Amino acid sequence: MEGKEYDIGSPAEMYDVPAGLFSANAATETDAIDKLDDLLDEVEGEKVTYDELILSLGGSKRAGAEDSENTVVTLVQKVKGGRKKFSQLTPVLLISGEEIDRSLKDELDEEDIWFKPLHVRVPMKREIVIPAPLEKPKPRAAAIAGHTVNSIAELGKETAESSPFVMKLTEVLKRSKRIYVHNDLWLDGSPYICDNFFFDRTPCILYALKQAVIAGATVIFVKLSDKAKGHRCRKHFQYVREAGDEGKEYATWTMYKDVRFIDPWFIKSGGKRTRRSTRRLRRKTKSTSQYK
Fold first, then answer.
1. Is residue 228 part of a domain?
2. What is the DSSP string of 210-233?
3. What H or E segment, with its residue span, contains residue 208?
4. How many distinct structural domains can be found in the chain?
5. Looking at the whole model, is its pTM more than 0.85?
């Protein structure tokens, strides 16, 4: 499917599909907020909290391909790992501007999962934080070295605080101790050249997550990408693995631990960093992290 030039919206809107598949009206936002309100109950004056929460952002299927698996299902399976079930009722949120596949409810119909499909468009930005791989390497390297998850989250503050939906989502996230999200969703095609959905287009979601982190939550970016399913955008953005995360397919974001990046295209080309360049990169990024 060919991308539509100058179209800004959810990933699916890049493709030639009926307009009825998308929603940008107040009614769907109100419905999504009502569903989030269900998660904000109180019992005997005490706020209900969640040990774990799973957040899937974007379409229900990857890359708009009919034969691809549902991202949210893959994410739940990854988080569950060897466990037969979650220790307590775990909210699973799917935020999508696309019509959400009804069969997902059957796939996620488990007694320990509270599935909340939220059919609502997330406010998106035109500004690009990290230049595309086809741009000149120096500006791209500087952008990667100069940003962390915390700094990019701040770029979404204005958008988040002007969105009733994102503000309600923030309330829910702040009730959670551990939040699992994926980061394998990229925008591809004109005018998008491998833009990361979280970092370039919807930093307002990162801002909501940051408020939860400040409140004491741990956010875990889970790698979903399957090397067998080639994709030129390298679906999972590469992170600098800090102490405790080395060799693992996830990166951890906490109040005391920011997340830095590695250029996935640099890795793909087989480039190698010298010790001197690695130290230089660390010096550049150290000042951008307010928690290190």
1. yes
2. HHHHHTT-EEEEE----TTS--TT
3. helix 203-214
4. 1
5. no
Structure tokens at 123: 């406010």
| Residue count (the chain) | 292
d(CA 12, CA 102): 17
Asked whether residue 259 is assigned to any structural domain, the reply reads: yes
- Residue 175, token pair as written in the block: 């009730």
- Examine residue 117 and say whether the peptide bond preceding it is cis (omega within 30 degrees of 0): no
User: What pLDDT digit, counting tens, does each position of 240-269 carry?
Assistant: 777 676 677 788 999 999 988 877 665 544
Interatomic CA distance for residues 287 and 91, integer angstroms = 35
Range of the domain at 174: 11-286
Whether residue 291 lies inside any domain: the answer is no
Quick: pLDDT tens for 21-41: 444 567 788 999 999 999 999
How many whole angstroms separate alpha carbon 219 and alpha carbon 251? 8
Calpha distance 165→147 (Å, rounded): 26
Dump pLDDT digits (tens) for 51-91.
999 999 865 555 455 556 678 888 899 999 888 889 899 99
* 27 CA to centre of own chain: 24
Separation CA 39–CA 65 (nearest Å): 32
CA 249, 253, 257, 261 torsion-angle sign? positive
Instruction: List, in sequence order, every residue forming a beta bridge with 196; answer none if it has no partner.
Output: 186
At residue 100, φ and ψ (nearest 5 deg) are: -85, 130
Q: Is residue 120 a part of any domain in this protein? A: yes
What are phi and psi for residue 218, nearest 5 degrees? -110, 125
Q: Is 288 helix (H, G, I), strand (E, B) or coil?
A: coil
Task: Tell me the one-letter amino acid at 138.
Answer: K
